[in-house]
Automatic annotation (TrEMBL):
Residues 44-301 form the Periplasmic binding protein domain. GO terms for cellular component: outer membrane-bounded periplasmic space. InterPro entries: Bact_Solute-Bind_Prot2, Peripla_BP_I, SBP_2_dom. One of its GO terms (molecular function) is carbohydrate binding. It is found in: Cell envelope. This is Transporter. Gene3D superfamilies: 3.40.50.2300. It comes from Winmispira thermophila (strain ATCC 49972 / DSM 6192 / RI 19.B1) (Spirochaeta thermophila).
Length: 372
């Protein structure tokens, strides 16, 4: 069977492709379960928080593809943003005979319970791009999330370094959102201390939902009488939701706003002059690395020896919660790239991460860069 690493965008085609992908993964998962008895192949479980975020279906497809190519059973399950369901699914993966489980946590605190239970059964858990808050995980694989926040603040400050700023954080249950905010404030605080910047609103967006971001921004604009100068948003989805509210008030392209993930919609908005910047995290490197780590753990290999990039971090520093002080977690962090209109072509388009034709679809041909 041939699998394609699809970067989903919006519209009816997204819904068709996504429905097909979910069906494909469901069938694959059932096949893996059915073949579990008497089959000595390695079994890797992958527990996704949701498929609402653009990137997760892509990574599910890639995990499945890597399993097919390497003779590994991959069981993918999606929790639909329900922490309890996710824990039940993780427990079920242990019962199905998973050798390793990769977890994209909906709630890093809640998922710790399931991760600890899996560890007691001898099943290692890899926290994938979202921290599971326990020192019982085998590894935490992600990007430099504090640097993501720094890049977001820097990107906005390049355009506007004084005035009334809005902070739009991610889901309060996602530890990454806390780390992004830490990085943002490291850059913004000196400007606040000097009186150059005033934070007029500081909100968190439940489930990273663009619709929630839209409502929040509408309320902020009403409360401030549209008197805002910049928005530090924590990913492309929330930024684009907020941009809808800014557009309605004629402020799109006038108020700088940050994003993250270099999504198709985000990159398209950048070249159209609305979204100011995004942070490119090359997830094409993250999924294969997670698969390799899972394979090594399943074989009983020493991942620290095999991957010298893995370093121990204190959970207190990763969560900004001192109650975790002294508990260590093996971490592997990949670098990130700050992207705006000046380098989106070089960093994102030429590398093949997003398609040229889609990103520049609404840009006149004589204003586009050359086709890669």
């Amino acid at each position: 069977m041939v699998y394609t690493y699809i970067l989903f965008s919006g519209g009816p085609m997204k819904r068709i492709l996504l429905s097909a992908l979910i069906l494909l993964i469901a069938v694959t998962g059932l096949f893996a379960q059915g073949q579990g008895q008497g089959d000595d192949r390695i079994v890797i479980g992958v527990s996704f928080s949701d498929f609402a975020t653009e990137r997760w279906p892509n990574e599910a497809a890639l995990f499945t593809k890597l399993g097919q190519e390497n003779g590994v059973q991959v069981i993918v399950q999606v929790a639909n943003q329900d922490p309890k369901l996710q824990n039940d699914q993780i427990e079920n993966m242990v019962l199905q005979g998973a050798d390793v489980i990769v977890v994209i946590a909906q709630d890093g605190d809640a998922a710790a319970t399931a991760a600890e239970a899996a560890a007691r059964e001898g099943v290692p858990v890899i926290a994938y791009d979202r921290l599971v808050k326990t020192d019982k995980i085998a590894a935490y694989l992600s990007f430099d999330n504090v640097e993501v926040g720094r890049a977001q603040a820097r990107g906005v400050l390049k355009v506007k370094d004084r005035g009334r700023f809005v902070l739009l954080g991610g889901s309060p249950t996602d530890n990454n959102a806390i780390l992004f905010r830490k990085g943002q404030m490291e850059v913004l605080q000196p400007y606040i201390d000097k009186g150059q910047i005033e934070i007029v609103a500081d909100q968190w967006v439940e489930n990273w939902d663009p619709a929630n971001a839209l409502k929040i921004m509408e309320n902020i604009l009403t409360a401030t009488d549209n008197k805002i100068d910049a928005v530090v948003a924590s990913n492309d989805g929330t930024a684009l939701g907020a941009l809808q509210a800014l557009k309605a008030q004629g402020l799109a392209g006038k108020v700088p706003i940050s994003g993250q993930d270099a999504t198709l919609a985000g990159c398209k908005s950048i070249v159209e002059g609305e979204l100011t910047m995004t942070v490119f995290k090359d997830i094409r490197k993250l999924t294969p690395l997670a698969f390799e780590l899972a394979l090594a753990l399943a074989k009983g290999e020493d991942i620290r020896q095999k991957y010298p990039e893995i370093k121990d971090y204190d959970l207190a520093d990763l969560t900004l919660d001192e109650s975790f002080r002294g508990k260590k977690v093996p971490c592997y962090f990949l670098p990130v790239v700050e992207v705006d209109k000046t380098n989106v072509y070089e960093e994102v388009i030429k590398s093949g991460f997003q398609p040229y034709d889609e990103v520049y679809r609404d840009i006149p041909e004589d204003q586009r860069p050359p086709r890669p």
